[in-house]
Amino acid sequence: MAAGPKRTRMNLIADQILSIDAAGKPVIGDLVLGKLWGEVLQVTGLERFVADQQLASLTHQVTVPYRRDLSPKMRLTFEGRTLNIEAVLGNSSHSELRLLCREKAAT
């Protein structure tokens, strides 16, 4: 799997329980797990059609150096955007990962 240049600096984010409210529900906040470089590509055309058959509304593919701690419970933030990680796909040499992501709509 040939990767392009990893020029985008991103924050790796996970949910963190900050406290419990009066109703007993957890108050969730962001926990920044670290920063990483990656190549962000928008999924279009046939790739998107094929991807949508497996995962609803994929919008981006991000290639990053291999890490053991990445999971679909995490998200990436960069340039005011948030990408929810939907799937983590490795390569045989464990040199990089492809993250299939869905962009979170701006609020």
Can you walk me through this structure?
With 107 residues, the protein is mainly β. It contains 1 helix and 6 strands. It has one helix at 45-54, and strands at 8-20, 26-42, 60-65, 75-78, 81-90, 96-103. The protein has a 6-stranded antiparallel β-barrel. The longest helix has 10 residues, at 45-54. The radius of gyration is 15 Å and the shape is globular. The termini are far apart. The model has no long low-confidence stretch (mean pLDDT 85).
List keywords for this structure.
107 residues, mainly beta, six-stranded antiparallel barrel, 1 helix, 6 strands, globular
> Mean of the pLDDT scores?
85
Give the N-to-C terminal Cα separation: 35 Å
Q: What structural class results from the helix and strand content?
A: mainly beta
Beta-strand content: over 45%
Number of helix segments? 1
How many whole angstroms does the radius of gyration measure? 15 Å
Choose one word for the global shape.
globular
Physical arrangement of strands within the biggest beta sheet: 1-2-3-6-5-4
Q: Helices and strands, in N-to-C order?
A: EEHEEEE
Q: How much helicity do the residues have?
A: under 10%
Enumerate the spans where pLDDT stays under 50 for 5 or more consecutive residues.
none
E-strand count: 6
Largest sheet: 6 strands, antiparallel, barrel
